[in-house]
Structure formats: C-alpha cells, structure tokens
Amino acid sequence: MENDKERGLESSLRRKLLMGMAAIPAMALMPKYAFGAGPATAEVNTTGLAVTDTEVTVGILHSITGTMAISETGSVQAEKLAIEQINAAGGVLGRKIKFIQEDGASDWPTFAEKSKKLLVNDKVAAVMGCWTSASRKAVLPVFEQYNGMLYYPTFYEGLEQSKNVIYTGQEATQQILAGLDWVSKEKKAKTYYLIGSDYIWPRTSMKIARKHIEGHLEGSEVVGEEFLPLGHTQFNSVINKIKLKKPDVIYCAVVGGSNVAFYKQLKAAGIDLSKQTLLTISVTEDEIDGIGGENIQGAYACMKYFQSLDNPNNKEFVTEFKKMWGEKTVIGDVTQAAYLGPFLWKLAVEKAGSFDVDKIAAASPDIEFTKAPEGYVKIHENHHLWSKARVGQVQPDGQFKVVFETAELIQPDPFPKGYQ
Amino acid sequence: MFADYSLAELGSIFVMQGFSGLILFSVYLLMALGLAIIFGQMGVINMAHGEFMILGAYVTYFTSQFFLNYLPPLFPGYFFLAMILAFIASGVLGMFIEWVMIRHLYKRPLDTLLATWGLSLILQQLYRSFFGAREVGVELPEWMMGSVAITDTIEVQINGLFVISLTLAITVAVALLMFKSRWGKQVRAVVQNRIMAGAVGINTEKVDRYTFALGCGIAGVAGSAFTMIGSTGPTAGQLYIVDTFLVVVFGGAASLLGTIASAFSISQAQSTLEFFLSGSMAKVLTLLSVVGILMLRPQGLFTLKVRR
Which residues cross the membrane (chain B) (predicted)? Predict the structure, then answer.
C-alpha cells in the first residue's frame, strides 16, 4: 500500500517534471539540490530517462514467486545491498538511486512484459535482473527495441552478446575448461560421466565439456552422458549406471531442487564423495543449504566466487550482507555476480558522464571494479567480465574450501571456436 | 544396448534396477494413496494434494530441528514421531479445508479442480511467507543413510527399504480400514449412493470429513517420507502432482487395487527404460504408453463394475 502511494507520488512528480522540461535549461543554472552535487539533468539525460536532479530510478526484475524464487532471492538481496551502499556513498553523479522492483514470477512472458513496463512506463535508467537463460532470451528483444540496459548475473551457456546487456556471471568457457583442466591434472582423471538437467544450459555446457575432454585432455573419454527432466527426484537408475561404469569423475550440472534428491541418493547408495571425485558447475552455497552439508561434503564445485574467499573486499561484503539480511543467509556465486551489477553501472555512468544507455554501453568496456568481492573484475569489449575460475571443496558446514584458482583472469569468450 | 555389459553385470543391473523400481513404486504409491481415497472415493479432484505433502515435509523439518536443538540423544528416533505429527497436521488442515470449502462442492466435481488449485496457490504462498522461499534440508539420523551390500555390485539402500516398508504398512492399514471396518463400509456406502446412505442413518457429512482428512493425512506422511530423498520448498509439491494423478487415473479412479497395480507398472517401466535410454526419454515413453492404454481403457486399469 505504502509502496503504491510512494510510486503514485513519484510518478506525479515525474509528470510535473516532464511538463516542466522546457524549464530545464533554466534549472541547470539553479543551485545544487540537497542530495545532488552532480551535473545538471539536461546534460546527463538526453533520452528522457527517469532521472531528476536528486534521483535516478533503476529496475530490479527477478522472480520472487514461482519455482525460481528460491534461486533469485539472493540476487535481489545483493542488488538491494549494492544500491544502498552506493547511496550511502553519495549516489551516482550526485543522484540517489531509487529502485522499482517487478516480479517475473518464474514465467518468461511475464518477464518480457515487466521489462517493457520498466523501460517504457517507468523509463528506468538500467535494470538488474533475470536468472534463467529462458527469461533472458525473453527480455532481450525488449531491451534491444526500447534501448534499455540489463545487468545479468547468472553463469550461463554463452553464445550470446548484446550491446544492451552486461553479463556479470561467467560464460561457459570460464567455468568449464578451467575446472576440467584442474580435475584432469590434479586427480589424474581419465574417465568422465556427465549428468545434467534437461534444458539448454546443461546441454550446451556438456557439449563444451565433451569437446574439451575428448579433444584437449589426453587419453580422456566420456563414459556416459545423462540428462534428466527438470525437477526430477528419482536418481536411482543413473546412480546404478554410475556404479557400474566407475568413472574417475562425475561431472554434474543438475539444477535447483533436484540437487537435494541427487546428493541424498548418492550418499544413500554408498557413493562416498571423499573417494569418488565429483565436480559440479551448478551447486552453490544456496543449494547446499537445501542439500545439507553432510550429504555433499567432499564434492568439488567450479565457480568464480565462494562465500569463504579470503580477501578484504569479500570479508566486508559478507559482513554487510549478513547485517542486512540476517546471520543465517548464505551467499552463492550468482548472488555475488548480482552485487556487481549496480556498481558496474555506476562506474559506467560516471565514466560516460551520462545516464544515456548508448553512452553507457560504449563506456563499459575496460571498466575495472577493484572492490569486487571476488577480487577484481574488468568488463571486456564483448560485455562479459574477465574473471578467475576457482575450484572449491564442500565442507561439512556447507561452506567451500578453495583448493585451486587460476593465476590469471580468464578472458571471456562467449563464442568459443571449436566448441560449438 | 546390452553389448556394453558382461553377463554378470547384466544380472546385477536387473536386480539393482528392479530394486530401484521397487523404491519408485513405493514412492508413487505413497503419493497416490491419499489422492486415490479423495479422488476415487469422493470424486474430489484435489489439486492441492502436493501442498498437503509439503506440509508433512515441513513438519518433519521442524521436528528434526526441535530434536537436534533440545533432545539430541533421541534424535535417531525422531522420524517416527515426525511422521505421526505430519499425519495429524495434514489431516487437521484437510478437515478444516473440507469444512470451509470442499463440502459445498460435492455436487460439482469439476469445480473442485479450480477451487483446490486456488487453494494450492494460497498454501504455496503461505509456506513462502512463513518458512521462506529457500529450500530447507532435513537432517536424517545416521542409521537411515548408507546401504547394505549384498554382493560387490548389488547394494540395497536403507532409506529405500524404509520407504518400502512404510508404504506396505500404510497400504495394509488403509485396505483394512476400507474393507474390514464399520467406518470403511460407511465410506463405501456413501460413495455408492449418498442419499440412500443418509436415509439408512449414516452421517454422510461426518464420513466425508473424515475421509478427506484421512487422504490428506496420508499425503502428509508421504511428504514426511520424501524428505529422505527430495527437497522441501514452497513449490516442491508441484513436482509430484502430475505423477500422482497419472498413477490414480491410470489405475482406475475408484479402485485401491488399481492404484497399486498402476503404480507398480508405471514405476517398473520407468525404471527399466531409464537404464537403457535417457531419463527424459524413459519419461516420454512411459507417458506415451499410459496414454495409449487409457485410449483403449478410458476408465483405467481396474474399475468397479457399475450399472449404467
């Protein structure tokens, strides 16, 4: 209710403001407002975005209902934290960030509709949002048509690049190749069993993994590949197959709630993950919360971020996150990537000296964010991030112990040659 | 497809897959029993069945937390208490729902579909508000994990055995209740002819309420058992509802024996196909054959003989 009232007030303000557009040149000469010490609105917003002298509005678009709510809650929390921190430090170009949150409801057409609402009606300057590739694919044409800016936080299958999107998670090669190289070298692995949920991300990932295993890792082979329906809870048959094949590595991209069933049944079937190597690209601290640390301890995950990362940026981030959202919350890879979004946008706006989407898109490459919890990130020309790949081993308390990280930042390559 | 394996391996494959199929059978039967009572006996299409299961799962979760925090020495046995509590919680909620909503809809069975679907959405949102959107993990006592090795390649999972015996016990109890007890006779009388049953002095309203509560209570126990294998989250119930209806409809709605037979054939087909084909393919083939058989026998595998 209160929110609605606020929104009503805000939109009436905006209407007044728009009506008073003619007066803007005069306003530019007026003294600075309370929050703002930034440049005049007419200079930094030539495309009619929701920017006033004291405020700029952005959108948050995630599922807070439906099946994806479990995963996307963390992203929303991280984005709100980032916005609050930016505001506390003086905002963007002297303007306080306000946000409008919309619910995609785990339904891809709804995502498209809400993104249109945010861009056309609310005229938001940027949107932090989406989680599944399906939702991103649904909103992409909207962002391109109405020239919006999307900060997308999830690690994904690659094969995409847009002027209107900054991808703050890893694309496939940054997660898969480094992890497989590590397991091949460190565990002397030769045989691999691939298992994933049956939709685009695991399938594309496994295709890349198979190419890499068979083409680049000497003497290695894939002894089995299996895809199970989303939400599957009966893994006994697959586990029986794994037991017969005795692979050196189980390579895993099972997503969401299915993971709980998978790891509980693995353990019940007597597969001890401290002896059987398992490398996953889809289990973060969030999923372990549901699986239970004792059911998955010993497994490895390849991500770019773990809550347990030992660096000053991350310590501060974890403390602040828990202060805002409660001591019991956990922070996974995607949550951290979502946290990067508002900061990268702020840096781009400041570099461009403007809120205009075209200018931000052009200014984004080479932006560095040194306060990133994962250490340091830089935006590549292809709008993905340079990042490290890390391998962590699950501890009984549900946290990861980092056992490996790449020495250098890995260059993002959404269209890897020879892997498609 | 057989060439990859040696004869000894093939032998153990069939034993292991047979056992996996048996576990799946128990899971399907546990899910479907409650629904078969409500749908089969009362004609109510209960779309909120999955949510009653998840209530049982949440009750189990909170019982496990309670024992972990306050009574750690008794933790190994908490599961039995949790199942009883799950039965009571789901049963009481079922009774309440019957009184508020379902009893007004007995003459309009199709409307129960819409009403209970709405109910399932409401319950999901309530769970999300009270328990949070994230999935919770239920900790199991040590004795329930692990497996018994029979030979090198054949291992039997303890929680699988547990689910199987639980299903067996509940099925026998329901059968006795339905076919041997006085109350069961009343239920069957009400199902066959409500007006006549009322005329001979059966309190049909009371029978309806307890039958509905019993079906929901069994769903709660099923949910409690599923915490051993699956995840517990506000929307997890949705995962089960399609399979559950599949089993009940395939078996012939009004027949408990049909439910058992259909759970068995679907699970064995699924489990065997899964081994030689992919998981998704197995599901597709199973569904296709169910559709095929239902086209030949629209009333399901087993049905009561009724005069039309």
Answer: 20-40, 52-71, 77-97, 109-127, 158-179, 212-233, 239-263, 275-296
**Do A278 and A372 contact (CB within 8 A), yes or no?**
no
Q: Establish if A92 touches chain B: CB-CB under 8 angstroms.
A: no
Question: How far is Cα A37 from Cα A17, in angstroms, rounded to an integer?
Answer: 19
Across the strands, what pairs with A393? A300, A401
Report CA B118 to chain centroid distance, whole Å. 20
Assess A268–B contact: CB distance below 8 Å, yes or no. Answer: yes
Calpha distance A63→A80 (Å, rounded):
15
* Burial class (CB within 10 angstroms; exposed 0-12, middle 13-18, buried 19+) of A289: buried
Beta strand B147-149 pairing with A277-280: unpaired
Show the tokens assigned to A211: 């190419």
Question: Alpha helix locations (H) across A20-103?
Answer: 24-28, 41-44, 69-88
Domains of chain A: 2-170+309-386 (3.40.50.2300), 172-303+390-405 (3.40.50.2300)
B171 HSE (CA, 13 A, CB side): 22
The count of CB pairs under 8 A between chains A and B is: 132
Task: Please tell me the distance in Å from B152's CA to the nearest CA on chain A.
Answer: 10
Token digits of residue A111: 């995502």
Tell which A residues from 311 to 370 touch B, by Cβ distance under 8 Å.
Answer: none
CA dihedral angle for residue B299, residue B301, residue B302, residue B308, rounded to 10 degrees? 20
Closest CA to B57 of B240, B210, B211: B240
| Inter-chain residue contact A65 with B230, CB threshold 8 Å | no
As a whole number of angstroms, the distance between CA B234 and CA B54 comes to 7
Question: For residues A330 and A400, what is the distance between their CA atoms, to the nearest angstrom?
Answer: 11
Alpha helices in A117-171 (DSSP H): 133-145
What is the distance in angstroms between the Cα of B289 and the nearest Cα belonging to chain A? 18
Asked if B13 and A240 come within 8 Å (Cβ–Cβ), the reply is yes
Alpha helices in A89-186 (DSSP H): 108-116, 133-145, 172-186
- B187-192: long-range contacts, CB 8 A cutoff, minimum separation 24: B187/B41, B187/B211, B188/B41, B191/B41, B191/B42, B191/B254
Which residues of chain B does A234 touch, with a Cβ-Cβ cutoff of 8 Å? Answer: 20, 23-24, 27, 229, 270
Q: What is the ipTM of this complex?
A: 0.79
What are the residue ranges spanned by the domains of chain B? 25-296
B110 touches B44 (CB < 8 A):
no
Give the residue on B whose Cα is nearest the Cα of A260.
Answer: B231
For residue B136, list chain A residues with Cβ-Cβ distance below 8 A: 289-290
**Interfacial B residues in 41-100 facing A (CB < 8 Å):** none
Q: Which chain A residues are Cβ-neighbours of B238 within 8 angstroms?
A: 67, 231
Interface contact A291, partner B, CB < 8 A: yes
Count Cβ atoms within 10 A of the Cβ of residue A219 and give its class: 0-12 exposed, 13-18 middle, 19 or more buried.
Answer: exposed
Q: What is the pLDDT along chain A (420 residues), one digit of tens a residue?
A: 445 545 554 555 555 555 555 444 444 444 444 576 678 888 899 999 999 999 999 999 999 877 777 788 899 999 999 999 999 999 999 999 999 999 998 889 999 999 999 999 999 999 999 998 989 999 999 999 999 999 999 999 888 999 999 999 999 989 999 999 999 999 999 999 999 998 888 999 999 999 999 999 889 999 999 998 887 888 888 888 898 888 999 999 998 778 888 998 898 888 889 999 999 999 999 888 888 888 899 999 999 999 999 999 999 999 999 999 999 899 999 999 999 999 999 999 999 999 999 999 999 999 999 999 999 999 999 999 999 999 999 999 999 999 999 999 999 999 988 887
